[in-house]
Protein backbone atom coordinates (compact mmCIF):
# COMPACT_ATOMS: atom_id res chain seq x y z
CA UNK A 1 0.00 0.00 0.00
CA UNK A 2 1.46 3.36 -0.99
CA UNK A 3 1.66 6.12 1.59
CA UNK A 4 -0.41 9.27 1.16
CA UNK A 5 2.80 11.22 0.54
CA UNK A 6 3.89 8.84 -2.23
CA UNK A 7 0.50 9.00 -3.93
CA UNK A 8 0.49 12.79 -3.68
CA UNK A 9 3.96 12.93 -5.25
CA UNK A 10 2.88 10.68 -8.14
CA UNK A 11 -0.19 12.83 -8.78
CA UNK A 12 1.83 16.06 -8.68
CA UNK A 13 4.41 14.56 -11.06
CA UNK A 14 1.68 13.45 -13.47
CA UNK A 15 -0.02 16.86 -13.36
CA UNK A 16 3.29 18.58 -14.03
CA UNK A 17 3.95 16.53 -17.17
CA UNK A 18 0.35 16.80 -18.39
CA UNK A 19 0.43 20.57 -17.83
CA UNK A 20 3.30 20.86 -20.32
CA UNK A 21 1.77 18.45 -22.83
CA UNK A 22 -0.12 19.39 -25.98
CA UNK A 23 -3.57 18.41 -24.81
CA UNK A 24 -6.50 20.53 -23.72
CA UNK A 25 -6.02 24.29 -24.29
CA UNK A 26 -2.34 23.83 -25.20
CA UNK A 27 -3.35 22.08 -28.43
CA UNK A 28 -3.94 25.56 -29.87
CA UNK A 29 -0.20 26.20 -29.73
CA UNK A 30 0.16 23.69 -32.57
CA UNK A 31 -2.12 25.45 -35.06
CA UNK A 32 0.56 27.89 -36.22
CA UNK A 33 3.08 25.11 -36.94
CA UNK A 34 3.43 24.75 -40.71
CA UNK A 35 6.87 23.19 -41.11
CA UNK A 36 8.28 19.97 -39.69
CA UNK A 37 11.38 21.81 -38.55
CA UNK A 38 9.20 24.17 -36.49
CA UNK A 39 7.44 21.21 -34.86
CA UNK A 40 10.81 19.63 -34.14
CA UNK A 41 12.02 22.81 -32.44
CA UNK A 42 8.82 23.13 -30.42
CA UNK A 43 8.96 19.57 -29.11
CA UNK A 44 12.72 19.29 -28.74
CA UNK A 45 14.06 22.82 -28.18
CA UNK A 46 17.36 21.55 -26.80
CA UNK A 47 17.96 18.74 -29.28
CA UNK A 48 16.22 19.57 -32.55
CA UNK A 49 17.75 18.09 -35.69
CA UNK A 50 18.90 20.21 -38.60
CA UNK A 51 17.61 17.99 -41.39
CA UNK A 52 15.85 18.72 -44.69
CA UNK A 53 12.06 18.55 -44.36
CA UNK A 54 11.83 15.47 -46.59
CA UNK A 55 14.19 13.55 -44.29
CA UNK A 56 12.77 14.78 -41.02
CA UNK A 57 9.36 13.05 -40.94
CA UNK A 58 10.45 9.48 -40.14
CA UNK A 59 12.99 10.66 -37.60
CA UNK A 60 10.49 13.01 -35.97
CA UNK A 61 7.85 10.29 -35.65
CA UNK A 62 10.32 8.04 -33.83
CA UNK A 63 11.33 10.85 -31.49
CA UNK A 64 7.70 11.67 -30.70
CA UNK A 65 7.07 8.06 -29.66
CA UNK A 66 10.28 8.00 -27.60
CA UNK A 67 9.23 11.28 -25.96
CA UNK A 68 5.96 9.67 -24.86
CA UNK A 69 7.49 6.49 -23.48
CA UNK A 70 10.24 8.45 -21.72
CA UNK A 71 7.65 10.59 -19.94
CA UNK A 72 5.67 7.50 -18.96
CA UNK A 73 8.87 5.99 -17.58
CA UNK A 74 9.47 9.17 -15.56
CA UNK A 75 6.19 8.58 -13.76
CA UNK A 76 6.54 4.82 -13.39
CA UNK A 77 10.01 4.97 -11.88
CA UNK A 78 8.54 6.86 -8.91
CA UNK A 79 6.39 3.82 -8.10
CA UNK A 80 7.72 0.79 -6.26
CA UNK A 81 5.09 -1.81 -7.17
CA UNK A 82 3.60 -1.51 -10.63
CA UNK A 83 0.38 -3.51 -11.15
CA UNK A 84 0.21 -5.84 -14.11
CA UNK A 85 -2.49 -3.78 -15.83
CA UNK A 86 -0.26 -0.68 -15.82
CA UNK A 87 2.53 -2.81 -17.28
CA UNK A 88 0.14 -3.92 -20.04
CA UNK A 89 -0.94 -0.36 -20.82
CA UNK A 90 2.68 0.48 -21.57
CA UNK A 91 3.34 -2.77 -23.38
CA UNK A 92 0.65 -1.94 -25.93
CA UNK A 93 3.65 -0.58 -27.86
CA UNK A 94 5.24 -4.02 -27.86
CA UNK A 95 2.08 -5.66 -29.18
CA UNK A 96 1.93 -3.07 -31.99
CA UNK A 97 5.60 -3.64 -32.82
CA UNK A 98 5.08 -7.41 -32.96
CA UNK A 99 2.43 -6.92 -35.65
CA UNK A 100 5.01 -5.12 -37.78
CA UNK A 101 7.63 -7.73 -36.92
CA UNK A 102 5.44 -10.65 -37.98
CA UNK A 103 4.57 -8.88 -41.24
CA UNK A 104 8.28 -8.36 -41.92
CA UNK A 105 8.95 -12.06 -41.29
CA UNK A 106 6.13 -13.03 -43.66
CA UNK A 107 7.53 -10.76 -46.38
CA UNK A 108 11.07 -12.06 -45.68
CA UNK A 109 12.36 -8.52 -45.32
CA UNK A 110 16.11 -8.29 -44.81
CA UNK A 111 15.98 -5.74 -42.02
CA UNK A 112 13.55 -5.60 -39.09
CA UNK A 113 11.09 -2.74 -38.65
CA UNK A 114 11.94 -0.23 -35.97
CA UNK A 115 10.49 -0.82 -32.53
CA UNK A 116 9.81 1.24 -29.42
CA UNK A 117 12.37 0.89 -26.65
CA UNK A 118 10.44 0.12 -23.46
CA UNK A 119 13.53 -0.56 -21.38
CA UNK A 120 12.85 -3.11 -18.65
CA UNK A 121 9.27 -3.55 -19.87
CA UNK A 122 10.41 -5.03 -23.21
CA UNK A 123 10.07 -8.82 -23.36
CA UNK A 124 10.68 -9.69 -27.04
CA UNK A 125 14.26 -9.98 -28.30
CA UNK A 126 13.86 -7.72 -31.33
CA UNK A 127 17.62 -7.73 -31.93
CA UNK A 128 17.44 -11.46 -32.85
CA UNK A 129 15.55 -10.76 -36.10
CA UNK A 130 14.96 -12.70 -38.36
CA UNK A 131 15.06 -15.74 -36.02
CA UNK A 132 11.50 -16.05 -34.63
CA UNK A 133 12.46 -18.72 -32.09
CA UNK A 134 15.19 -16.52 -30.64
CA UNK A 135 12.84 -13.53 -30.56
CA UNK A 136 9.76 -15.13 -28.99
CA UNK A 137 10.91 -18.13 -26.93
CA UNK A 138 10.35 -17.70 -23.21
CA UNK A 139 7.97 -14.75 -23.69
CA UNK A 140 4.19 -14.33 -23.66
CA UNK A 141 4.38 -14.51 -27.45
CA UNK A 142 5.90 -17.98 -27.81
CA UNK A 143 2.58 -19.20 -29.23
CA UNK A 144 3.29 -17.17 -32.38
CA UNK A 145 5.97 -19.71 -33.37
CA UNK A 146 3.21 -22.16 -34.33
CA UNK A 147 1.17 -19.55 -36.19
CA UNK A 148 3.63 -17.57 -38.29
CA UNK A 149 1.57 -16.35 -41.27
CA UNK A 150 2.23 -17.35 -44.84
CA UNK A 151 -0.51 -15.23 -46.41
CA UNK A 152 -2.28 -11.93 -45.84
CA UNK A 153 -5.39 -13.68 -44.52
CA UNK A 154 -3.23 -15.61 -42.03
CA UNK A 155 -1.64 -12.35 -40.97
CA UNK A 156 -5.02 -10.67 -40.42
CA UNK A 157 -6.06 -13.53 -38.15
CA UNK A 158 -2.80 -13.44 -36.23
CA UNK A 159 -3.07 -9.70 -35.67
CA UNK A 160 -6.64 -10.18 -34.46
CA UNK A 161 -5.44 -12.83 -32.03
CA UNK A 162 -2.78 -10.46 -30.71
CA UNK A 163 -5.53 -7.95 -29.97
CA UNK A 164 -7.69 -10.64 -28.40
CA UNK A 165 -4.90 -11.80 -26.11
CA UNK A 166 -3.86 -8.27 -25.19
CA UNK A 167 -7.31 -7.03 -24.23
CA UNK A 168 -8.25 -10.31 -22.51
CA UNK A 169 -5.13 -10.01 -20.33
CA UNK A 170 -5.72 -6.31 -19.65
CA UNK A 171 -9.39 -6.84 -18.78
CA UNK A 172 -8.53 -9.79 -16.54
CA UNK A 173 -5.96 -7.76 -14.60
CA UNK A 174 -8.33 -4.81 -14.20
CA UNK A 175 -11.07 -7.10 -12.95
CA UNK A 176 -8.79 -8.52 -10.25
CA UNK A 177 -8.16 -5.15 -8.54
CA UNK A 178 -10.44 -4.25 -5.65
CA UNK A 179 -9.62 -0.51 -5.56
CA UNK A 180 -12.99 1.21 -6.26
CA UNK A 181 -11.24 4.09 -8.05
CA UNK A 182 -10.21 1.67 -10.78
CA UNK A 183 -13.77 1.93 -12.10
CA UNK A 184 -12.73 5.05 -14.04
CA UNK A 185 -9.95 3.45 -16.07
CA UNK A 186 -12.01 0.27 -16.30
CA UNK A 187 -14.80 2.28 -17.92
CA UNK A 188 -12.32 3.77 -20.40
CA UNK A 189 -10.90 0.35 -21.32
CA UNK A 190 -14.39 -1.14 -21.68
CA UNK A 191 -15.30 1.67 -24.09
CA UNK A 192 -12.00 1.18 -25.92
CA UNK A 193 -12.76 -2.53 -26.37
CA UNK A 194 -16.24 -1.77 -27.72
CA UNK A 195 -14.83 0.78 -30.17
CA UNK A 196 -11.95 -1.51 -31.14
CA UNK A 197 -14.50 -4.20 -32.01
CA UNK A 198 -16.57 -1.76 -34.06
CA UNK A 199 -13.59 -0.43 -36.02
CA UNK A 200 -12.15 -3.89 -36.62
CA UNK A 201 -15.53 -5.15 -37.85
CA UNK A 202 -15.93 -2.16 -40.20
CA UNK A 203 -12.41 -2.54 -41.62
CA UNK A 204 -12.80 -6.27 -42.21
CA UNK A 205 -16.14 -5.70 -43.93
CA UNK A 206 -15.27 -2.58 -45.95
CA UNK A 207 -11.65 -3.32 -46.90
CA UNK A 208 -11.42 -7.13 -46.97
CA UNK A 209 -15.02 -8.19 -47.71
CA UNK A 210 -15.14 -10.61 -44.77
CA UNK A 211 -18.58 -12.10 -44.09
CA UNK A 212 -20.27 -11.87 -40.69
CA UNK A 213 -19.24 -15.32 -39.35
CA UNK A 214 -15.60 -14.65 -40.28
CA UNK A 215 -15.66 -11.22 -38.65
CA UNK A 216 -17.34 -12.48 -35.50
CA UNK A 217 -14.52 -14.93 -34.81
CA UNK A 218 -11.91 -12.16 -34.93
CA UNK A 219 -13.55 -9.80 -32.43
CA UNK A 220 -12.99 -9.36 -28.69
CA UNK A 221 -15.69 -11.38 -26.92
CA UNK A 222 -15.47 -9.88 -23.44
CA UNK A 223 -18.07 -9.04 -20.82
CA UNK A 224 -18.35 -6.10 -18.43
CA UNK A 225 -20.53 -7.81 -15.88
CA UNK A 226 -23.68 -8.64 -17.82
CA UNK A 227 -22.87 -6.16 -20.59
CA UNK A 228 -21.40 -7.56 -23.80
CA UNK A 229 -18.50 -5.56 -25.25
CA UNK A 230 -18.95 -7.10 -28.71
CA UNK A 231 -22.72 -6.83 -29.21
CA UNK A 232 -22.62 -3.32 -30.70
CA UNK A 233 -19.97 -4.32 -33.24
CA UNK A 234 -22.01 -7.33 -34.34
CA UNK A 235 -25.06 -5.13 -34.82
CA UNK A 236 -23.25 -2.85 -37.26
CA UNK A 237 -22.06 -5.61 -39.59
CA UNK A 238 -25.50 -5.97 -41.19
CA UNK A 239 -25.89 -2.25 -41.85
CA UNK A 240 -25.21 -0.99 -45.40
CA UNK A 241 -22.17 1.20 -45.91
CA UNK A 242 -23.92 3.50 -48.39
CA UNK A 243 -27.18 4.33 -46.57
CA UNK A 244 -27.27 6.59 -43.54
CA UNK A 245 -30.86 5.92 -42.40
CA UNK A 246 -30.23 2.40 -41.01
CA UNK A 247 -27.48 3.85 -38.79
CA UNK A 248 -29.65 6.42 -37.00
CA UNK A 249 -30.36 4.00 -34.14
CA UNK A 250 -26.70 2.91 -33.85
CA UNK A 251 -25.29 3.38 -30.33
CA UNK A 252 -22.33 5.39 -31.63
CA UNK A 253 -24.18 7.24 -34.38
CA UNK A 254 -22.48 10.47 -33.26
CA UNK A 255 -19.13 9.04 -34.42
CA UNK A 256 -20.27 8.57 -38.02
CA UNK A 257 -19.49 11.00 -40.79
CA UNK A 258 -22.65 13.11 -41.30
CA UNK A 259 -24.90 13.17 -44.31
CA UNK A 260 -24.34 16.06 -46.72
CA UNK A 261 -27.24 17.34 -48.85
CA UNK A 262 -26.94 16.46 -52.51
CA UNK A 263 -24.20 13.85 -52.06
CA UNK A 264 -24.23 10.07 -51.73
CA UNK A 265 -23.38 9.12 -48.15
CA UNK A 266 -20.75 6.45 -47.65
CA UNK A 267 -19.39 5.23 -44.34
CA UNK A 268 -15.95 6.75 -43.71
CA UNK A 269 -14.00 4.36 -41.46
CA UNK A 270 -11.01 6.71 -40.86
CA UNK A 271 -13.49 9.41 -39.78
CA UNK A 272 -15.07 7.01 -37.28
CA UNK A 273 -11.61 6.11 -35.99
CA UNK A 274 -10.72 9.77 -35.40
CA UNK A 275 -13.98 10.43 -33.57
CA UNK A 276 -13.53 7.30 -31.46
CA UNK A 277 -10.03 8.41 -30.42
CA UNK A 278 -11.40 11.84 -29.51
CA UNK A 279 -14.15 10.26 -27.40
CA UNK A 280 -11.64 8.18 -25.43
CA UNK A 281 -9.34 11.18 -24.99
CA UNK A 282 -12.12 13.32 -23.54
CA UNK A 283 -13.08 10.57 -21.14
CA UNK A 284 -9.46 10.07 -20.00
CA UNK A 285 -9.02 13.83 -19.55
CA UNK A 286 -12.18 14.01 -17.44
CA UNK A 287 -11.28 11.01 -15.29
CA UNK A 288 -7.61 11.93 -14.80
CA UNK A 289 -8.47 14.15 -11.81
CA UNK A 290 -11.42 12.15 -10.46
CA UNK A 291 -9.38 10.11 -7.95
CA UNK A 292 -6.01 11.87 -7.71
CA UNK A 293 -4.32 9.55 -5.21
CA UNK A 294 -5.10 6.23 -6.88
CA UNK A 295 -3.86 3.99 -9.68
CA UNK A 296 -6.39 5.76 -11.88
CA UNK A 297 -3.99 8.72 -12.13
CA UNK A 298 -1.22 6.62 -13.68
CA UNK A 299 -3.57 4.80 -16.05
CA UNK A 300 -5.27 7.96 -17.35
CA UNK A 301 -1.86 9.64 -17.62
CA UNK A 302 -0.69 6.90 -19.99
CA UNK A 303 -3.85 7.20 -22.10
CA UNK A 304 -3.52 11.00 -22.33
CA UNK A 305 0.14 10.82 -23.35
CA UNK A 306 -0.66 8.25 -26.02
CA UNK A 307 -3.42 10.49 -27.41
CA UNK A 308 -0.96 13.39 -27.54
CA UNK A 309 1.52 11.14 -29.35
CA UNK A 310 -1.06 10.18 -32.00
CA UNK A 311 -2.02 13.84 -32.39
CA UNK A 312 1.58 14.98 -32.89
CA UNK A 313 2.30 12.22 -35.40
CA UNK A 314 -0.89 13.06 -37.33
CA UNK A 315 0.18 16.71 -37.34
CA UNK A 316 3.64 15.82 -38.65
CA UNK A 317 2.19 13.61 -41.40
CA UNK A 318 -0.31 16.29 -42.41
CA UNK A 319 2.37 18.98 -42.61
CA UNK A 320 4.54 16.67 -44.72
CA UNK A 321 1.63 16.47 -47.20
CA UNK A 322 1.43 20.24 -47.48
CA UNK A 323 -1.37 20.95 -44.99
CA UNK A 324 -1.11 23.72 -42.44
CA UNK A 325 -1.16 23.00 -38.74
CA UNK A 326 -4.57 24.63 -38.45
CA UNK A 327 -5.96 22.49 -41.29
CA UNK A 328 -4.73 19.27 -39.67
CA UNK A 329 -6.09 20.16 -36.23
CA UNK A 330 -9.41 21.27 -37.72
CA UNK A 331 -9.71 17.96 -39.58
CA UNK A 332 -9.01 16.09 -36.33
CA UNK A 333 -11.63 18.29 -34.58
CA UNK A 334 -9.40 19.00 -31.59
CA UNK A 335 -9.62 22.82 -31.74
CA UNK A 336 -12.55 23.07 -29.34
Automatic annotation (TrEMBL):
Keywords: Ion transport, Transport. GO terms for molecular function: proton-transporting ATPase activity, rotational mechanism. Transmembrane segments: none annotated. Pfam families: vATP-synt_AC39 (PF01992). Belongs to the V-ATPase V0D/AC39 subunit family. This is Uncharacterized protein. It comes from Gracilinema caldarium.
Amino acid sequence: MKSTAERAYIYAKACGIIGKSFIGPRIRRLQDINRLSDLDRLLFPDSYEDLPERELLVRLEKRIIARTTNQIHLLLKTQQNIPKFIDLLLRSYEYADIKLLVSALMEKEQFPPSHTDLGRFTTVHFEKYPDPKAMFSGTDFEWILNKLPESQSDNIRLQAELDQRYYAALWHELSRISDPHIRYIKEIVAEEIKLKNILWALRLQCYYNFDKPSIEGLLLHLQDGKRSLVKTALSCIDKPGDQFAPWTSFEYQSLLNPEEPGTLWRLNVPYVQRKAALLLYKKARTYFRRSPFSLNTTACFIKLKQFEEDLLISLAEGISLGLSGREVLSMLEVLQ
